[in-house]
Design goal:
Chain A: Its main location: membrane. Chain A: It is a peripheral membrane protein. The complex is a heterodimer. By secondary structure, chain A is of the alpha/beta class. Chain A has a domain of about 130 residues: P-loop containing nucleotide triphosphate hydrolases (Rossmann fold). Chain A is about 30% helix and about 25% strand. Chain A has ten helices and twelve strands. In chain A, α3 packs across α4 and α4 crosses α6. The two termini of chain A are about 30 Å apart. Chain B is mainly α. Chain B is built from 13 helices and no strands. In chain B, α11 runs antiparallel to α12. The chains are: A alpha/beta, B mainly alpha. At the A-B interface, α2, α3 and α6 of A face α9 and α10 of B. The complex binds adenosine-5'-triphosphate, iron/sulfur cluster and magnesium ion (MG). Magnesium ion (MG) binds next to α1 of chain A.
Chain lengths: ~325, ~300
């Protein structure tokens, strides 16, 4: 049994009386200790997938279909209290808003100990020690002395470290990292990725790493799921994906990885316009931009199929 | 510290400016207080004598300096008209005004803050619509009209409260408090609207903040998250509340008139009718000083509550 199993996940937002689906049947799983990358261009549904897993979708968005199982337990129908005790403890997350993710009017020590006390049943004193330990774990020196400081006294990279410390303080089995480096300087980005890599090894946590940046993804992930227009396009081991992407969108995405001289790690856009949720037809969302599209591509959704250790959704890749 | 100092200096400058303008306005009017004191059939000589006795024949600038130096020494001086001590007049009327403002302020806080919070928590549900409608009505009703409505409702209709007039503490706590209920409502309801609106928008803003999503994502309990939200929303609410407190001193004058309370408005109106300009000046400046002090307190609290500015 996988640690996390997402099956046929649909997320919709009611817009003008109609349900606009922004995640449209995504399926993947993560084994304990595994690092999975979730990649795709802006708006492809990566964040909504992550939020749906944690049941943190912003109202009125909701899961309209599908299932999320964590350690075998169904989350889409779990009670709010059950979700609360799961969040921040065995299933945790780091967001991209490193600069605004901490509460500006509480010392970081209070924020850390509050999370620890919510899950680990420790006294405030013991929770404080655990907070110091967690800060040490993410490489913040003189942690005890910094507990009383406020977020604005930390740099952006340091704030993200504090948020990571908060997310791993209760030893999660799965850490979701939603573009954890986007708000940070390029030099700091590498440090944060190295930190996640290190934490994964030390704490044995599984990672769902959401990113635009294929280089960063390749650095720490074992496997990658490519999303487009709210659908899974390809799911493959990182090495295999980079060496031989089977799906036309994955191929286009990888061709867009910058060559020498481009800004490190940034994506160059693919020809054509990004899909707009709610204005997608029944077929493959990539069809308007696909160079090898077939007649049936626009009309029928391509089925997912196994090709070696790849999972691919594409009519052209069908055998 | 510098900020506080500059606020204090700024406030002093405002007081000076207000006193100068008042002085100029009063002296632009040619009717001497002597007319009031000595009556219409006083001779020109009597009036000249009165003016000379009271220094009213001196150049305006000199009169101003004389008044200012006395005020700086903390003396109010004596009324031109009946020679009563102005400090006594103020000691008699100010407590009524201050008490009225305090009750109205308390009422505003007690109603507005829970209303604003509930409204933000149930954004776009019926409680929220109701609270917002009330707030819109509250800010658009003129104070004196609200006062009359309250009299019609609470005094004439229900008969629970006196329609006006003031019962001192010495005649019993309950009668005293009853005489303050309608005036406090008349003065406070506008600020219920103002403060509840601010509370609602401050809380609603914070609820959308990234750090609140993080708190949820870390599995904090509802109560703890609420504490986090309220603590963040506190600065703007406290600021608006403190500033409202200052404004209330101005509106209190009108409410006092509607309910015939013997507060500072009475001293002020008497002085205006009698051209007792030293009293006018002193009362207006005291009210201005309350207003300015409330603003300084608002500023200080804002700084204290926000650790990003506090250091
Ligand atoms: N509250 C909302 N109401 C309607 N649509 C929404 C809402 N929130 C997000 N969406 C839409 O859902 C789609 C997927 O958004 P999502 O945030 O998952 O994208 P993403 O892949 O994380 O992109 P990015 O890389 O920019 O973070 C987007 O088209 C977005 O416009
Ligand atoms: S299904 Fe058709 S349109 Fe979609 S990627 Fe494959 S070939 Fe292109
Ligand atoms: Mg996103």
């Amino acid at each position: 049994m996988a640690l996390l199993e997402v099956r046929d996940l649909h997320v919709g937002f009611p817009v003008a009386g109609r349900m606009v689906e922004v995640v449209r049947g995504v399926t993947f799983s993560i084994e304990a200790g595994e690092a999975l990358g979730l990649v795709g261009e802006s708006g492809s549904g990566k964040s909504q997938t992550a939020l749906a897993i944690l049941r943190l979708l912003r109202h009125p968005g909701r899961v309209t279909r599908g299932s999320v199982r964590f350690e075998g337990r169904e989350l889409t129908t779990a009670s709010e209290a059950a979700m609360r005790s799961l969040r921040g403890s065995s299933l945790s997350i780091v967001f991209q808003d490193a600069l605004s993710g901490l509460n500006p009017v509480f010392p970081i020590g209070t924020q850390l100990t509050d999370v620890i006390m919510a899950h680990r049943g420790l006294s405030r004193r013991a929770a404080r020690d655990a907070a110091v330990e967690a800060l040490g774990l993410v490489g913040i020196r003189d942690a005890a002395g910094r507990l009383g400081q406020y977020p604005h006294q930390f740099s952006g990279g340091m704030r993200q470290r504090v948020l990571i410390a908060m997310a791993v303080a209760c030893r999660p089995k799965l850490l979701i990292a939603d573009e954890p480096t986007t708000a940070l300087d390029v030099t700091v980005q590498a440090q944060i990725v190295a930190l996640l890599h290190d934490l994964r090894a030390r704490l044995g946590l599984a990672l769902l790493f959401i990113t635009h940046n294929l280089d960063l993804m390749a650095e720490i992930c074992d496997r990658a799921v490519v999303l487009y227009g709210g659908m899974m396009m390809e799911d493959a081991p990182v090495g295999a994906l980079f060496a031989a992407p089977l799906q036309p969108y994955s191929r286009a995405l990888l061709e867009c990885v910058p060559r020498l001289g481009d800004r490190a790690g940034s994506l160059r856009p693919i020809e054509g316009a990004s899909p707009v949720p709610g204005r997608l037809g029944p077929g493959c969302p990539f069809e308007p931009r696909c160079g090898v599209a077939l007649d049936r591509c626009a009309a029928e959704r391509p089925p997912e199929q196994r090709r070696g250790d790849h999972r691919v959704a594409c009519w052209a890749a069908a055998s | 510290m510098w900020a506080l100092l500059s606020r204090l200096l700024g406030s002093a400058a405002v007081l000076v400016a207000v006193s100068l303008v008042l002085f100029a306005l009063i002296h632009a009017n040619p009717v001497s207080p002597a007319r009031v004191v000595l009556g219409n059939d006083a001779s020109e000589e009597d009036i000249a004598q009165f003016d000379a006795d009271n220094g009213l024949d001196r150049p305006v600038a000199e009169q101003y300096l004389a008044w200012a130096s006395r005020s700086l020494r903390g003396e109010f001086g004596r009324s031109l008209v009946d020679d009563t001590s102005i400090s006594r007049t103020i000691a008699q009327t100010m407590p009524v005004t201050v008490e009225l403002v305090l009750w109205a302020f308390l009422l505003a806080l007690v109603l507005a803050i829970p209303l604003g919070i509930v409204s933000a928590l149930h954004e776009d549900r019926w409680v929220d619509h109701l609270a917002r409608a009330l707030a819109t009505v509250g800010v658009s009703i003129p104070g004196f009209w609200l006062g009359l409505m309250l009299i019609a409702w609470g005094a004439v209709g229900l008969g629970w409260f006196p329609a006006g007039g003031y019962v001192p503490w010495t005649e019993g706590a309950l009668p005293h408090l009853r005489s303050m209920v309608l005036p406090a409502m008349a003065l406070g309801l506008y600020y219920v609207a103002i403060i509840s609106r601010m509370t609602r928008s401050a809380v609603a803003d914070v609820m959308m903040a990234d750090h609140v999503r993080v708190s949820r994502a870390m599995g904090l309990g509802r109560g703890r998250i609420m504490v986090y939200i309220l603590r963040n929303a506190l600065s703007p609410i406290v600021t608006v509340a403190a500033m409202s407190f200052g404004y209330m001193f101005g509106w209190a004058l009108i409410v006092e008139q509607v309910f015939t309370l013997p507060g500072m408005s009475r001293a002020l109106l008497n002085a205006i009718f009698r051209r007792d300009y030293i009293v006018i000046l002193d009362v207006v400046l005291i009210i201005t000083a309350f207003f300015l002090a409330a603003n300084i307190v608002a500023d200080l609290l804002y700084r204290l509550l926000d650790p990003r500015i506090a250091e």
